[in-house]
Specification:
about 425 residues, 19 helices
């Protein structure tokens, strides 16, 4: 009988993968605590839907400002060390916020500024961190590796963290952020145990090699954008993620108000929404192996995006908290499947030396879409009420699904970069 450790992270995937997994899971505990505590903190200082949405916007806005630069930097330097330095910056911001809260001088503007600074450091953490897995695992193990990282995200960030964050927030506004600082610091220690990752290779797949020492960061960014533009499958995948995140984020930016004022679920009930989605994600974790063997990636992607459309409609219509919990359970299931498939497909198609830059463009699409969507959601909710963003999301997601239905087949049928290189070798 295999041990639990062997089942979670098989020995063939190596010790470094286990350290990466432990660091990711630990960091996600802290992020999950803040997932509930941060909106509750902002909502305790203001009832304006625009300012509530601004809290999420200012955390993700740095992706639009620094995202592409972070990708180029990740392709130049030791990615493990970059994650450690950026996480240290996150810990400093959190400790400063705790000091403001404990001394009683914190206000909405200090909290919003902290969200922006924290989000800036997180850009470099996530960009560099996303490139480590393809460097540690063989292409055949990327699906399993991404599933394990996603499982940790679901358990720590979505399942355990938010209820704990809501509970700690009720005990004292500073407690959840202090715990998050501890988790981020421990994540630094864990990832430091990974063997020093090499600086990404150059010209391994015929790229221009402009990322060599002495070139400008803007030159590196341009190279990554050119590669992406000339690769239709990856380009379309990034576009899909951008469009669906605009529609998804519109209601999500005011979800705390929707849950507490429209559904009357209270602070703990709001935290339970993310717990419900994590429960669905855990079921997807157990089912993913079977799904991968019996259902094509194209079919799964189409089903996931179709469920996204129906999820928005269901939230627009419901007035019951228990129904919202069921909807979030289904959301968690298909969101896990979508996240695992889309990440695996992208990592298999992108050369190692471009992983940082292409990943950063993808993340700019994710968070850029969230910034746009949350800004729209705040204005729509303020003007037409808390259910209006869900109707906007339903209509927008339905139209987007019609646009991307056929190109999905081209995305999943594209040949991995390694296959193309080997085919061209004499």
């Amino acid at each position: 009988m295999p041990s639990i450790g062997e089942l979670v992270a098989p020995r063939r995937m190596g010790r470094d993968f286990r350290w990466l997994l432990a660091s990711s899971w630990t960091s996600n505990v802290g992020d999950g605590v803040a997932l509930a505590a941060a909106p509750l903190l902002i909502a305790s200082m203001t009832s304006s839907p625009i300012l509530v949405a601004a809290g999420a916007i200012l955390q993700f806005l740095p992706w639009l400002v620094f995202g592409l630069h972070a990708g180029a930097i990740a392709d130049r330097f030791d990615r493990r060390r970059l994650v450690m330095v950026a996480n240290a910056a996150r810990a400093v911001v959190l400790l400063a916020l705790c000091a403001f809260l404990i001394t009683g001088v914190a206000n909405i503007w200090i909290v919003l500024a902290s969200a922006f600074l924290y989000g800036t450091a997180e850009v470099f953490v996530d960009t560099a961190g996303s490139t480590l897995l393809p460097m540690l695992l063989k292409p055949a193990d990327l699906g399993l590796g991404n599933a394990r990282l996603q499982a940790g995200y679901l358990v720590a960030n979505q399942f355990a963290g938010p209820p704990l964050g809501a509970f700690l927030f009720a005990a004292g506004h500073a407690w959840p952020f202090l715990l998050e600082a501890v988790c981020v610091s421990l994540a630094i220690v864990l990832i430091s145990r990974i063997a020093r990752t090499p600086i990404p290779p150059r010209d391994a797949t015929g790229t221009t090699g402009s990322s060599a020492a002495g070139t400008k960061v803007h030159t590196d960014i341009a190279e990554g954008l050119r590669w992406l533009w000339r690769n239709p499958p990856v380009r379309m995948l990034v576009l899909i993620i951008l469009l669906f995140n605009v529609t998804w984020a519109a209601p999500w930016g005011v979800l705390v108000l929707y849950a507490t004022e429209h559904l009357h679920m209270g602070a703990v009930g709001y935290g339970m929404l993310t717990t419900a989605s994590a429960t669905g994600g855990l079921l997807a974790t157990l089912s993913f192996g079977w799904l991968e063997r019996h259902v094509s990636f194209a079919t799964m992607m189409r089903v996931c995006l179709s469920l996204e459309v129906m999820m928005h409609l269901a939230f627009a219509l419901t007035t019951q908290g228990w129904i919202a919990l069921l909807i979030m359970f289904v959301f968690g299931f298909y969101a896990f499947v979508w996240g695992t498939i889309s990440t695996t497909v992208r990592q298999r198609l992108v050369p190692h030396e471009l992983q940082g830059r292409v990943s950063s463009v993808n993340s700019v699409g994710v968070f850029g879409g969230m910034v746009i969507g949350q800004a729209l959601g705040g204005v729509i909710a303020q003007t037409w009420g808390l259910t209006a963003p869900w109707w906007f999301a339903f209509a927008g997601a339905a139209l987007t699904l019609l646009f991307v239905w056929r190109p999905i087949s081209q995305i999943v049928s594209a040949r991995p970069v390694l296959d193309e290189v080997q085919a061209n070798e004499p």
